[in-house]
Write a structure and sequence with these properties.
Radius of gyration: 18 Å
Structural class: mainly beta
Largest sheet: 6 strands, antiparallel
Distance between the termini: 5 Å
CATH architecture of the largest domain: Sandwich
Helix content: under 10%
Shape: globular
Mean pLDDT: 85
Oligomer: single chain
Number of strands: 21
Length: 241
């Protein structure tokens, strides 16, 4: 089991990866899960409006995408073309052909990849009449409705090998302390600030700070700003944190 630890954006180390126009920030899950899961924060560098990935697929078990800023235009075999905006999420099963046709210049995304290392296969455009055996799961962020702090299920897929549930949190200033969902190991602040409490005490967290949380620990949020938003993700069949 790992200790409760915040990874602040102010100490982020950005590196290169699979896309030349993207910077990647590793959030520490590879070591914490004995090489099973990658948890990362990615952002576009420079102008990306005309950039495309082309049709391809990833040979992995699970890919989770949450848009932090900007937008992504995406084609997925067997589905209508999608515009994925800030606050939207997507679960892509391994082997599903897709094409990221364009990005906004400020595009930022949170990724979970299982396993961390995988092969990418370049493909031609699929037959428009063909239907894949698997499909993507899209979760749209709900607009704020006021009232007290709450967790909402953003998207879930328990049919794949691992099983994933992503919950989105919207708080408001003056809310009392709120418990995080038990067993949700991956935590990321989408906006605003709060105090995250756990076994090691408390830590101030703000936009783009991340944390890996022990499965059986009890964690809380308090002193939230009015615009506080966060994401908590649970992967059921993974190494315990």
């Amino acid at each position: 089991m790992i200790d409760f630890e915040v990874q602040p954006l102010s100490q982020a180390v950005w590196g290169k990866g699979g896309r030349s126009f993207v910077e990647y920030r590793d959030l520490g899950a590879v070591d914490a899960t004995d090489g099973q899961i990658r948890f990362e924060h990615d952002r576009v560098v420079g102008s990306a409006a005309e950039m495309q990935t082309g049709w391809h697929c990833h040979h992995l078990d699970l890919q989770f995408v949450y848009v932090l800023r900007g937008w992504l235009r995406l084609k997925v075999q067997g589905m209508a073309d999608m515009l994925i905006n800030e606050g939207d999420a997507l679960i892509l099963p391994g082997g599903l052909p897709h094409d990221e046709t364009s990005f906004s210049d400020d595009y930022e995304v949170l990724h979970i990849l299982v396993p961390p290392k995988y092969d990418t296969e370049i493909l031609g455009a699929p037959d428009s009449e063909s239907r894949p055996a698997k499909t993507a799961t899209l979760g749209l962020s709900a607009p704020p409705t006021g009232g007290s702090a709450r967790w909402n299920v953003l998207c879930a897929d328990v049919t794949n090998k691992y099983g994933l549930v992503a919950k989105e949190f919207r708080g408001s200033a003056g809310d009392d302390a709120v418990l995080l969902p038990q067993g949700h190991q991956f935590f990321f602040v989408v906006g605003g600030s709060a105090v995250l409490g756990g076994a090691k005490g408390k830590s101030q967290v703000s936009r783009a700070d991340a944390a890996l949380l022990p499965d059986d620990g009890v964690h809380s949020l308090e002193q939230m700003t009015h615009d506080f938003r966060a994401l908590a993700i649970r992967i059921f069949k993974a190494a315990r944190l």
